[in-house]
Amino acid sequence: MNNKIPAFLLENKPYPHSRTVTVKTLFIDKAVGHISEFYETVFTNWETARKDGLFQRLNARTKLLFLVLFVFAVSIKKDVSSDILIAIFIMPFVVLSKIGILSFYRKTLIAGFFFGLLPGLPAVLNVIMPGEPVYRVIELDQPYELWIYHVPQTIAVTREGILSAMTLTSRVANSVSITLLVVCTTPFAELVKALSTLRVPEYFLMILSLAQKYAFIFLKMLADMHTAKKARLIGRPDAADWIAGRLAYVFKKTQQRCDDVHKAMTGRGFTGQVKLASLRAMTPVDIIYGAMFLTLWFFILII
Amino acid sequence: METVLALNGATYRYYDKITALDGVTLSIGSGKRVAVIGANGSGKSSLLQVLAGLIFPQSGQAFFKGVPFTEKSFKDAEFLRHFRTYVGYVFQDSDVQLFCPTVYDELIFGPLQMGMDEAEAAGRADEIMKMLDIEAIRDRPPYMLSGGQKKKAALGAVLTMNPEVILLDEPTSGLDPRTQAFLVELLFTLNDAGKTIVLCSHDLALVEELQAETAVLTEGHTIEKVGSADDILGDEDMLLRVNLTHEHFHRHRGAGGTISHVHRHAHGD
Q: What share of chain A is helix, strand, coil (3-state, %, to 5)?
């Protein structure tokens, strides 16, 4: 082999003592940072799901029953007291399942704030929902008719409005906490298998597992490509062009991977009908907890 | 000795344009250790996939136990079941092969598709995990495994089907020396147990270690030579011709002064 090194490879570059120029963080760097955070979250969830806690020991079917029953109960109950009762009922399970309680309730409250309180906030005013005023906000010179809304002369916060916003917030927070409790204590694979109890076809479950797995692989590929590019980058790149090019590349890779995975499945006997390993059998403890959830559900519905 | 898999003048072209195999004739005897070697892009993986009935030659024939098989043969449920149980294929990229949610699901997938009772399949999975020392990662998703663990899981996923012929595409590629040694030992054990081992690689050290019957593919996608490992590895001119070795300039400095000369070198991964 003829190893003639070009002259430029032999040049030494002195460190330039010029003025410091701050390079701005691009949105793409932030996006890749979020990908890393996502990995971390998934890994943390996986670790939590393997702890020796109360919910972790339960069969995924029992947890799925809990999820369906209580999200249903939360959605049909229209009073704050029921929501508070459900929240109190969930808390011991969170503690006994050894989930980081602060992080758990932080996530729950953030979701409650963004998806419950913020959308429900306008309803506290008597412009949206008439009711008994408890706090006067503004006094107008006369009432107005604005599209479908009647704007009264005195715009005020109403008791009914506050209750309505509180109900919406608590419903969202409760639904999120129930879902988080199940998701954090159940490995994704078991959760997917438990869906077969709800008569979800095995095809769909297989696709769900494949999608989850390959989303990881392709996200990692994108993060690696970005890191490789960053290692050779000086100055501001044209991020839009790069993203478009990489998306096309990942799309092509996805197609190739799809063919290869199909070959791998065929090689192991896949003929078009999927047979998946079933979930572990229900134990008496799982059945007792299932019965307890059902009883409490009835109790919450009738009060 | 029975011939389990064979090709007669097999030609395969990707998208009907890019030639991967050009008139390849090869036979694999039962219970043998066979290595297919060749430079990058010579068609090693394609050859293995044709033998595994995953792709089908446009011309020429592929045989399973003396009976020619085509894509149509796999429409016959009995043939399909027999062939897939008999011939196992381990992909080079383990991420392709590991498509189930956990290692355990991966190991049990093949036997379940073959119609095996789940308890029996679970028993097999447990034994294979013990043999490959992967019990600790039983419930782990494949994307949380190291390269070596992925390779073991991929191999385990094939072994639970108890194939008589195991085809391995670049089995030691990207593995650390300890995992490579484990794999080579395992291949010997499986071969001693009567399994036919067919692998493709460009790692000549692996071929020497396995003392496999070796077929050499050229960059023109044809078979250059078939022989014993010693016979093939001893034919330096042929190895140079098919680009598996290259000439390397060296300068040694010692007590007797500086000696410059040209070596022939082979490189693994």
A: 65, 5, 25
Domain ranges for chain B, please list them. 3-266
Q: Do A217 and B96 touch (CB under 8 A)?
A: no
- Kind of pairing between the strands at B213-217 and B33-38: parallel
CB-based contact, B153 to chain A, within 8 Å: no
Whether residue A1 and residue B102 make contact (CB cut-off 8 A), yes or no, is no
A233 CB near a chain B CB, below 8 Å? Answer: no
Identify all chain A residues contacting B77, using CB atoms and an 8 Å cutoff. 271
State the Cα–Cα distance between residues B124 and B121, nearest whole angstrom: 5
b vs e for A80-102, b when ≥16 Cβ sit within 10 Å of the residue's Cβ?
Answer: bebbebbbebbeebbeebbbeee
Where residue B115 falls (left for φ over 0; alpha for ψ -120 to 50; beta otherwise) is left
Partner B contacted by A265 (CB < 8 A):
yes
What letter represents residue A48's amino acid? T
Residue boundaries of the structural domains of chain A: 201-272
Inform me whether the C-beta atom of residue A209 falls under 8 Å from chain B C-beta atoms.
yes
Which residue is it, tokens 């980058």? A233
Size of interface A-B (CB pairs under 8 A): 94
CA distance B109 to B100: 8
C-alpha span between B85 and B83 (Å, rounded):
5
Q: pLDDT (tens digit, 9 = 90+) per residue, B207-249?
A: 999 999 999 999 999 999 999 999 999 998 999 998 888 776 6
pTM: 0.77
Q: Which residue of B has its CA nearest to A273?
A: B113
Is A213 within 8 Å of B141 when comparing Cβ atoms?
Answer: yes
Q: What ipTM score was computed for the predicted complex, to two decimals?
A: 0.77
Looking at CATH, the fold of the domain delimited by B3-266 is given as Rossmann fold (3.40.50)
**Which residue out of B14, B71, B78, B96 would a mutagenesis test of the A interface target, given it has the greatest number of A Cβ atoms within 10 Å?**
B96
| Low pLDDT (below 70) residues in chain B | 248-250, 252, 254-256, 260-269
> A117: which DSSP letter?
I
